[in-house]
Amino acid sequence: MCPTTTSSSRVPRNLPELHELSAPAAWRRIDFLSDLHLSPDTPATLAALEAHLQETAAEAVFLLGDIFEVWVGDDARFDPFEAQCVAMLRAASERLSLFFMAGNRDFLLGEAMAADCGMTLLPDPTVLDAFGQRWLLTHGDALCLEDTQYQAFRAQVRSPEWQAALLAKPLAERREIGRQMRAASQARGKTMELWADLDTETSKDWLRAAGAVAMIHGHTHRPAVNELGDGFRRYVLSDWDLEAAPPRADILRLRHAGLRRIDLCSVG
């Protein structure tokens, strides 16, 4: 866990530009999910997402990052697996509002892919005004400040110059780079006792700036409700893995009555 600062005189750091979205009055249910890490190796997880998008009673679904295990550019969307995902998301967008926020695995997903899928791209973070409350939505990785090595990497790969240079490479070369980055990340994860969690005081700074008391995020794969103090809290999304035993697939559903977690593996 990241160390926190409790001094009331601390200077807020890492405050982002905030974007806002207001839920239409017709919405009655909103689903949030993240960290599916879809790839050709996860057919059961893909099938579970497709089933949920077909069956959910929600008027809107927010995909809060790492929906794909790796995304190396929108020109990949024509390949067989990605084209299957496009068709699934496009079908879902015809019956509900679909929003996508990039994670640390799929930050190269852009306007062309979003348009083909019928998704609206959301900046990270976004403040959602829904059911009389403001909710701060983020993937979560930008707040894992204790992992300084990752934060340096994140700053590099989110720069327009780095992305332009990568996207100029042939698709096959980008796929190989993506495989190498994924392997390096997995190897690093095996050597770490515990991935860095979100910095508590900076999370509270973000919430204060947003005029919100609650944050919804993914990234850490640690589903929970974390009380931050001073009336603030974090609602953490689960990852999905239907190939695992036992399988995992949670969503958070927001209604006028509040926010609740639904374990899709136990439904039905």
Write a structural description:
- The chain is of the alpha/beta class.
- It has a single domain (27-263), classed as Metallo-dependent phosphatases (Purple Acid Phosphatase, chain A, domain 2, 4-Layer Sandwich).
- 31% of the residues lie in helices and 22% in strands.
- It contains seven helices and twelve strands.
- The chain has helices at residues 43-55, 80-93, 111-117, 148-157, 160-167, 171-191, 200-210, and strands spanning 19-22, 30-33, 60-63, 97-101, 119-122, 126-130, 133-138, 214-217, 224-229, 232-236, 250-255, 258-263.
- The chain has a six-stranded mixed sheet, with helices on one face. It has a six-stranded mixed sheet with strand order 5-4-3-2-11-12.
- A hairpin with a 2-residue loop joins strand 9 (224-229) and strand 10.
- Helix 1 (43-55) runs parallel beside helix 2.
- 35% of the residues are buried.
- The model is unreliable at 1-9 (pLDDT under 50).
CATH homologous superfamily classification:
Metallo-dependent phosphatases
User: Describe the biggest sheet?
Assistant: 6 strands, mixed
Low-confidence stretches at least 5 residues in length (pLDDT < 50)?
1-9
Task: Return the CATH topology.
Answer: Purple Acid Phosphatase, chain A, domain 2
Shape annotation: globular
CATH architecture descriptor name: 4-Layer Sandwich
Tally of structural domains: 1
